[in-house]
Amino acid sequence: MKVKDVMAKDVVTLDVDEELSLADDIMHLGRIRHLPVVEKGKLVGIISQRDLFKGSLASLMGFGEKAKRDFLKTVTVKEIMVKKVITVSPDADIKDAGRIMLEKKIGCLPVVGYDDLVVVGLITETDILKQFIM
Q1: How many CB atoms are located within 10 Å of the residue 48 CB?
Q2: How far apart are the two ends of the chain, measured CA to CA in Å?
Q3: Whose CB has fewer CB within 10 Å in the chain, the N or C terminal residue?
Q4: DSSP-H helix ranges across 3-119
Q5: Domain range holding 125?
Q6: CATH code at 108?
Q7: Which residues neighbour 44 within 8 Å (Cβ) at sequence distance 6 or greater?
């Protein structure tokens, strides 16, 4: 089975200059754990819930929700995103995608098309696991 057969195709992305508060809102409301980051339509990074928590120093310092939100508005996505993104092609085998995630200890892989780093999908460990238990 190929990545393109199981990947999420309607992927929410963030621009590098978006506020971290927007990433927080999207992840919370959409129950999303990973957001690819683009600049001029090309993949340049990725942000996960874990990155968001690390970037949210206000929550670690015991501030309330309003103070945390105000802080997140002052930080841009490009300041905390992971820049070295491991990707996969739509034609890759899902077993290979799963192996990459296990070896690199990551929860997802952005799927990029043949047009140089244009995001066409996202495959997560959950997407792969579903294929083997359903």
Answers
A1: 20
A2: 14
A3: C
A4: 3-6, 20-30, 49-55, 57-60, 65-72, 77-80, 94-104
A5: 3-133
A6: 3.10.580.10
A7: 16, 37, 38, 78, 81, 83, 85, 117
What residue type is 91 in one-letter code? D
Give the pLDDT confidence of 46-99 residue by residue, as tens digits.
999 888 777 666 555 666 677 777 777 778 899 889 999 999 999 999 999 999
**For helices 65-72 and 20-30, angle between their N-to-C axes, nearest 10 degrees:** 120
Domain count, the chain: 1
pTM for the full predicted model: 0.85
Helix 125-133, helix 94-104: angle, nearest 10: 130
Single-letter code of the amino acid located at 106: I
Which single residue is written with the structure tokens 């670690």? Answer: 60
